[in-house]
Amino acid sequence: MEETISFQVLFATLKKRFGLIIGTTVVAIIIAAAISYFYLTPTYQASTQILVNQEQVEKQSFDSQDIQTNLQLINTYNVIIKTPFILSKVIENLNLDTTPAELSNQLTVNSEQNSQVVNLTVQNPDSYKAVDIANTIAEVFQKEIVNLMQVDNVNILSPAVYVEDPKPVKPNKELNVAIAAVIGLMIGVGIAFLLEYLDTTVKTESDIEELLGLPVLGLVSPISRKDVNTATDAPQKGSSPHVKKAHI
Asked: Is pLDDT at 206 greater than 80 in this prediction?
């Protein structure tokens, strides 16, 4: 019984504050959409892949130790790619107005699991610049690694390409709006129950029963001023309509 009453109160509160809940949700959606579409700067992404091969030596076959050595080198290469030594040359070649530290924040380097392929991803507000940076980093690294480690075992598998109508990877406008709708709905429901909890006024007979713990025996209907005036002005039975009533 208590569980049934609880659900009744729950749905009654939601129904009573339905306008508030919907209004809060709509406001949250509008704010999220405005920020996502008009204030956040779109960010584009370009990727390229490089392959770490066995050093070019006269050897007929490669054993597992050779492959393991290359896999270990990948971790070293991942660090070298993001060093100021490489990125400074990239900035110089492309005449970028940035620093190696800022460019490093736009760069993500990772390797495929148990493979010799390194993925290089660049995010930038300019889609064409992202492609140029990704390809230039791969080219500069491929050239400089020969002098740094005396090896020539890096090849570019798939350079980044230009796209006519690129799609930004950030912000995800639809996702932002959806999250805002959920948050707005939760806030609206929370405010509704908070207002209901703080509302101590007595409005209905059920409120009286709950407050006093006593049943309601009867109700007095509200009497409007018009009804009072009509009853007062009506002539009484047996009296002359021309006799004026005295008012005390």
From this structure: no
